[in-house]
Structure formats: structure tokens, C-alpha cells
Amino acid sequence: MKSFLKILTAAVMISGFFRWDFAAFAEEKQPEASAYILMECSTGKVLEESESRKKLPAGTMAKLMTALLAGEKIESGQWTPDTVLKASDCVNGIKGAVIWLMPGEEMTVDNLLKGLIAGNANDAAAVFAEQISGSSEDFVMDMNARAFELGMYDTRFTSPHGTDDESYSTAYDIGLLCCELSKLECISSYFKIWRDFLRDGATELVNENTFARTYEGMTGWKASHTEKSGWCIAAGAERNGMECAAVILGAEDKDSRFAMARELLKNGFSKYMLTLPGFSSEFMKPVPVKGGVSENVDVEAEGLTGLVVPKTDSALKAVLVLPKYVHAPIEKGQKIGSIAFYNGDTLLLETALVAEENVEAMTISTAVEKILVKLCKL
Predict the structure, then answer these.
(1) Number of neighbouring beta carbons within 10 Å of residue 77
(2) Using DSSP, how many helices (H) and how many strands (E) does the chain show?
(3) At 120, is the pLDDT very low, low, confident or very high (cuts 50, 70, 90)?
């Protein structure tokens, strides 16, 4: 019943806020490409976009998913960078960018990742596919299953390296993939390699993503080009505790993709900030408990996450919804109420208020025990 609820509203002033209209921050002259998107990585918030849900040829951007699945093998402890993998006949006949792997040749995961990420090597992708899933065909199924888990619903991978003409994705989906890659510290250094060597210097690797040597705070991920997909880039960078991903698909030429990515990232860092919403603890009063061994239960906010907000001055309003009382028993972590953060009438974030501890229900024995304790104190 409404009478059992109390709604506490607190205006929380957070420096660097708003007018909550992301479109207003777009440049008058937008970059030209088939599609693009700018996202904040930790929240997945879309800051700028154009045709970001349009299905387009993915090309060798597919290697980002191959890198993710390889990185997750390291993250899970199944591999280390020193794990040695053997190439099979799967490397025969692979064309395009390669590190000239031969059937039976052994190479560490570390060097294969260098080949895949810095060298854009199709044969390194084939080795990872076979070693992870048993075959290229099964690996493609795993790629698409992982994509679905990430919410990449408009993506279809058809090979571990993306050199065929059948795969497709969207700028938004590639952005989601980049946000997931940003969590994998075990492979983050490979995306920053500009130039390296394999086989004691016999094989040179030069990264197509020139941001690896030219962009301050660069974190990843890939520049690519095929005849069908055109010029593409997924560029990540971090400044002042905020990481952004700019994805451009189908740029006009080799250089414009970098210029467009640079402009998008500039917009992200100059116009937005990442902040953790807060509110005064004086509003988080204990909630009365009926029928419990304790008269009250303390509550706390569950899983407060960061918010990406424009860098203008405004206030964030916190609205707490708590019942007048709750009935025992109460379990730790049980939802008691909620807290929502608003800018004007716009809901930015809502999360649960949960019990900080267990509260057992009052029984005859516990009631008698409490009475005896009080009598002993008299």
C-alpha cells in the first residue's frame, strides 16, 4: 500500500553535469562513413552514433572475436602466454596477411597473439580456432555464441579471420565487443604493439593501427581493410579514468578512418565525464522490522555503477523508495527498496536497496530468551 512507503528525495550536486541531451553535443559536420559509434567502455553508454545498427561487412574485424576467445583462455587459466601450440594442416593455403606458419610448427600463445593482433595474421587465427574449438567450423559456432552472449544480435561470423565475404556486423556490435576486450588485461598489451618481430627477428610485424604509436592513451583495438568492408577501425583510448571506443565502418579511405576516430574520441573526452553517483547517508536510515529478533535492519545500495554525463553544471536528484516497515525473517542481500537517480524527469540509473544483515524471525524461545536477558539486567 502507498501508505507503507516513504519516498525521500535528495538533490545531489555532482560537479560536471549536464543538459541530458547527447545529440546536442554532436559536431555540426559529422564524420563520413557507412556507420560509426562512440561508446564509453565500462558502461556501454552510446555517446555519438550514425547508422550504428546497420548490418555491414565485418571483414577482418572478426579477428577481434578470435582475440577475445584466446584471451579468455588465458584469463581462465587454461593457457599462459608461454603455452606452446602446434600448427596443423589448417594453415595450408591460407592467403592474405600471414606469419608463414608451417604444419607441425610450434609457437607460443604469446607469439601467436602478436601475430594475430599486431600482424593481422590469418594463419595465427586459424591455429587459435583449431586449438580452442577443435576445428574452424566449431570455432565459428563458438564465435557466434559468444557474440550472442554479448548482445551482438546483428552479427554473423563465418571464419576466424574474416577474409571471406559472408560475415557481417554493426558498429554497435563491434563496440560491444571492444567494451568486452577492454576488460581483458591479459591481452591489452598486444594491441599497443606498433612493431615487433618473431622467429628471432626473421618475421617482422607492423600494426596497421597507427594509433598504437601516435595516439596518447591508446588502449586498442584494430584497423582493417578488405575490398568488401572498406576502411574500418575500432579505436580505444583512456583519459582521466574514462575509456572510450570509437568504431568506424566503411570510411572513405585509409587516412579518414583515423581522422574520424580521433575526432570521435576527442568529443568523448572533452564533452563527457565518468562519475559514480552518490547521496547523503543521512537518508539511509534503518528500516523497522516487525516480528524479528532485531527491531531494525540497515540497508545499502546494491551495485552502484558509473554514469557518463556531459561536462556542464547541473544537479543529480536521488529518489529513495523504502517501506515503512518489513516483516522478518530478512536475509542479507534481500531487496528492501530502491534508489533512482534522475536529471529532471530523465531516469539515469536505478538499483536496489538491500539488507546489510540477516534478521531472524522472533520465536517463542527467542522471545523468552530476550525477556530473561532483560530481567537479568534489572
Answers:
(1) 7
(2) 9, 21
(3) very high
**What sign does the CA torsion over 373, 376, 377, 378 have?**
positive
Q: In what order do the strands lie in the sheet with 218-226?
A: 46-50, 33-40, 242-251, 230-239, 218-226
| Helix 136-149, helix 122-133: angle, nearest 10 | 80
Q: Which residue has the higher pLDDT, 281 or 137?
A: 137
| Cα distance between residue 316 and residue 15, in whole Å | 10
If you average pLDDT over every residue of the chain, what do you get? 87
Give the largest Cα separation in the chain, rounded.
91
Conformation bin of residue 274: beta by default, left when phi > 0, alpha when psi is -120 to 50: beta
How far the first Cα of the chain sits from its last, in Å, is 41
pLDDT in tens, 222-246: 999 998 999 999 999 999 899 999 9
C-alpha atoms less than 13 angstroms from C-alpha of 134 in its C-beta half-sphere: 3
Contacts of 68 (CB under 8 A, 6+ apart): 146, 177, 180, 181, 184
Closest alpha carbon to 244 in 289, 198, 182: 182
CA angle, 111 as apex, 86 and 98 as ends, to 5°?
80
